[in-house]
Structure formats: C-alpha cells, structure tokens
Amino acid sequence: MIVGVPKELKDNENRVAITPAGVKALTSRKHQVIIENNAGLGSGIKDTEYLEVGAKIVSNIKEVYGAADLIAKVKEPQPSEFDLLKSGQVLFTYLHAAAEPLMVSALLDKEVIGISYDTVQLENGFLPLLAPMSEIAGRMSIQVGAQFLEKHHGGRGLLLGGVPGVASAKVVIIGGGTVGANAAKIAVGMGAQVTIIDLSATRMRELENIFGSRVQTIMSNEFNIFKELKEADLVIGAVLIPGAKAPKVVTEKMVKEMKEGSVIVDVAIDQGGCVETMDTVTKHSDPVYIKHGVVHYAVANMPGAVARTSTFALTNATLPYLLKLADMGCEKALRDDVALANGLNVYKGKVTNRVVAQGLGYQ
User: Fold this and answer.
1) Per the residue annotation, which of 69, 118, 270, 337 is the catalytic one?
2) Residue 363 pLDDT exceeds 80
C-alpha cells in the first residue's frame, strides 16, 4: 500500500502523522511511504530522518494525495485539500465530523473512506487514539489558563497557586474524563483550589480515590454549574460525547455572572464547544477574545502548540492501526477490528457513524 503523509495546513499545526519509527515499520513490510517535504519540521523531524528509513519525500501536497492509497493526517482536511481527495481513498485522521458539516459534505462528494481517530473506540468505551491528545490538552488547559489570568492578557492578575498569605485561584473543571483528570493533576500541582463537576457518581468516586481531599467533586446540574462558575477564576470545559457535538452546559447567562477577568478554556471546542459564548473558534496566533468581561480561549488544536510531544504521543497510539490498515487492506481491517470499525465515519458517499449522522441530519 502507498501511505501518504501531507504537511498539516491548520494554523500553527506543527504535528505530523508519522515518525521515522512509523515509516520504518511500514517500509519493512514492503509498503511505500510518501511524505511532503518539511512535513515533520514543526515536530523536530527532518526529511533526512525519513529518507534514512525508506520514505520518499515529494515537493508538494498534490503529489502526496495523487499517489497515496491511504492518507495519514493529524487534523481534518482543510478546504484547499478537498479537491485533492480521490474516490476510494482512505483518510485516517482526526475528523471531529459532527462539528465540520462542510468537510463531511466534501468527503461524501469525493466518496472517501474516512476513519476518525476520535471515534475509534474499544468495547469498554475507551478511546485509544483520542486519549493521548486529551491528556495533553487537559494539561495544557491549566498552563494556558494560568497565562491568560495574567493582567496584561486581560485576566484578573492572579497567580494560580497564590503565595503564603494570599489565596490561590479557584479552578472549576466541567467534565471528569481524561481531559478533566489531567487538568486537575496540573492544577493541583500548581496549588490551585480545584473543583470537578461531572454527571457520573462512579467517576467522581474514582477521582476522589485519585486526588483525595485535594479536589472537590460536585454533581453536574444547571444549579451547581451556575454556582461554581460565579466563584471561579479559571474554568475548563472538558465535556465529551464521543462523535457528537458537545452539549452547551455553560450558558451565556452563567458567563455574564462570572468575575471580570476570569478565564474559560474550552477544550471541547473542536467538537463545537460546551460554552454558549464560545461562538468563535480561535487560532494559536490569536487565541483569545473577551466577552462579558471574561477571557475566552477557543483554540481547536491545542496540542499542536507542543508538537514534538504530541506527535510522538499520537503516533505511538495510531501506528498499530495504521499498520493493520496497510497490511490487511481497509475493508478487511475494518471487519477484523471492532474499535477501528467504530472509527469509520464516512464510506464512499455515506455517513456510517450513527452519532455523526444524527448530529448532521443525515438520518
């Protein structure tokens, strides 16, 4: 099989879909790997490193799409890539399809086979290809939140952990999954007061076993969210329904009652966002805007800012599935692996993921 890896086009997206180790694994199995020149530079991987393990470097993105049977990417294809896709071509990447109706329409028109990292799901519900980026985004959310709490960024002028004699900041995390737990880990480590809001009593017991008295857990409902947000300095949106658009659990009314200069980091923004006032997706080059006196951080590809860490963490998880697709062929691999089949979002003109189809009105 010919596997193509284009350079990512999203703003400040420096991740790449394969490492030299991944190329070596594919070429040792007699597959061809075609990589756009300088695709790995943002992650500190030079073209020469790919060449040494058997990859072919090509000069432009058209050559990658034109030659490849399977396209491996990190983020969803951008509009300039739509016309490069071919009928029957396999696209293996984060699609976040429920929040990308125009892209889904393009994939259907091109009759692409789209397998999305974010819906590859094991029988126990675990999302193996989303988890590493959720871990990174969760940890980053506190890092960037602390930065934008600084006064010159529009924040309240707070040090997240405070100092002796001065109270630390209050961090409210909505959602206790992978993102929320990793955000809590960093926030606790920085000395903040941390509250996690979640719907599952079972999950809250697990979080209490992990963090003990260092974190307060509260049941998710409108009353509790409203109450906690009024006291919060930093809010992390960490709500996830696999494959679906995130529910708007934070309303504009709630945001209006928050402290001036407080900060919201909506990690769910790549699935449409869980905050009603997050009506604009931002970029790393211009990450925030202020609404109702509250700083909104709405970058949809947060892990792209720590590209080297993210690339290696992501490809550690994706490579086994990529090898299966290349070795077995797409159809056989999908039949053989339930988790991979769960990742199938579009197939030759049809939306195949039930949650995505419902969210976009295809059924």
Assistant:
1) 270
2) no
